[in-house]
Amino acid sequence: MPTKSDNIIEIKNLKKKYGDFEAVKWITFDVKKWEIFGFLGPNGAGKSTTIKILTTMIDKTSWNVKVDWNDLSNQHAVRNTFWIVFQESSLDDELTGWENMYFHAMLYWVKNNQINSEIEHLMKFVELREFKDKVVKQYSWWMKRRLEVARWLLHHPKILFLDEPTVWLDPQSRIHIWDYLKKLNEEQWLTIFITTHYMDEVEKVADRIAIIDHGEIQAIWTIDELKKQTKKKTLDDVFLELTWRDIREELVSESEWIRARVQAKRRG
Ligand SMILES: Nc1ncnc2c1ncn2[C@@H]1O[C@H](COP(=O)(O)OP(=O)(O)OP(=O)(O)O)[C@@H](O)[C@H]1O
Ligand SMILES: [Mg+2]
Fold it and tell me: Of 46, 48, 86, 176, which residue has the fewest beta carbons closer than 10 angstroms?
C-alpha cells in the first residue's frame, strides 16, 4: 500500500455564510491521499456545509481549496475526482443487479467497450457475481448495499465522501459498512472522508480525525494523539472535552430530522 503522505484535499481559510450567519469560519486543514479521515462535530457544527462545498454542491463565501490539485472553481475536474454517497438508495428494485450497474454506467458515460468487463470485475469484487441476474428486490439489505458500492466504483473515484452513512442503521449493519469501507480503502486505495456521530466506530478505522464545532476546527490529529493531548481514554470523552456545551434551544438539525424520519418509518 502506498504511503499516506501527499495531500489530496487542501483547505485554506474556507468560510461559508448563510445570510449573516457564519456556518464555517476560516477553517484550514489537509486530507492525505488514501487516508480514512473522520470529520466529527456536534449537530449544526458545519460538517455537511463543508462537504457540500468540497463537492461543489454549494458555493463558498471565500476559500482557497484544492481537490486533487484542482481549484474548486474548476467544477468539472473536481467532480471527476470523487463520489458522494447520499443516505437514500437509488437502486431500481425491478431491475437485476447487472441491469442496475449497466444503466448507471450508460448514464455516466463509462466507455462502451469497457462496460461489460468493468461490471463483471466490480460485481466480483463485491461478491455478487453469482446473483447478477437476480432482480434487486430479491437481494438482502446487505447485498443491496454491496451493489451500491460496486456502482460507486464504476466512477473510479479517488475520494469517497460519506455524510453520516450509517445514521439509520442497526449496530450489526454498521459494523458491516465500516469493515467494507476499510476494505475499499486498502484494496482500492480510496481516500475516505466521512462524518458520523458514532465515535466508537470511527475510532476503529480512521487514520486521523478533525473535530469541528461552531464552524471552527477544534483539533486535528490521529486518534492516539488526540487522546494523549486531552488525557482522555475514549474518543467519546475527547469529543465531549473539545465540544462540550449546554443543550440549547435551536432548530432541528439535519441528522436529528433524519433520525426522526427513520424512526417514524420503522413505526410504519
Ligand atoms: N441552507 C441553509 N441556510 C441557513 N442556515 C443553514 C443552511 N444550511 C445549514 N445551515 C446552518 O449552518 C449550520 C451548520 O449546518 P451543517 O448542516 O453544516 O451542520 P452539520 O455539522 O452537518 O450538522 P448535523 O450533525 O446536524 O448534520 C447550522 O447552524 C445550520 O442550521
Ligand atoms: Mg450534517
Answer: 86
Å from CA of 44 to ligand 1 middle: 5
- Total residue length of the chain: 268
What DSSP line would sit under 189-251, residue for residue? --EEEEE-S-HHHHHHH-SEEEEEETTEEEEEE-HHHHHHHHT-SSHHHHHHHHH-------P
Residue nearest to atom 16 of ligand 1 (CA): 46
Which residues of the chain have a pLDDT value below 70?
Answer: 1-4, 63, 86-89, 109-110, 168, 244-268
Q: How much distance in Å is there from the Cα of 255 to the middle of ligand 2?
A: 6
Ligand 1 contacts CB of residue 254 (under 6 A):
yes
How far is the centre of ligand 2, averaged over its atoms, from the C-alpha of 47 (Å)? 5
| pLDDT the model gives residue 112 | 76
Give all domains of the chain, ordered by start, each with its CATH number.
Answer: 34-58+71-81+162-268 (3.40.50.300), 83-156 (no CATH)
Distance 190 CA to ligand 1 centre (A): 27
40 CB near ligand 1 (under 6 Å): no
**Above pLDDT 70, what percent of the chain?**
86
* pTM recorded for the entire structure: 0.84
Nearby residues of 201 by Cβ (< 8 Å), 6 or more positions away: 166, 174, 175, 178
Query: What per-residue confidence (pLDDT) applies to 262?
Result: 65
The per-residue pLDDT for range 176-187, each reduced to its tens digit, is 888 888 988 998
Question: Ligand 1: does its nearest atom lie under 6 Å from the Cβ of 41?
Answer: yes
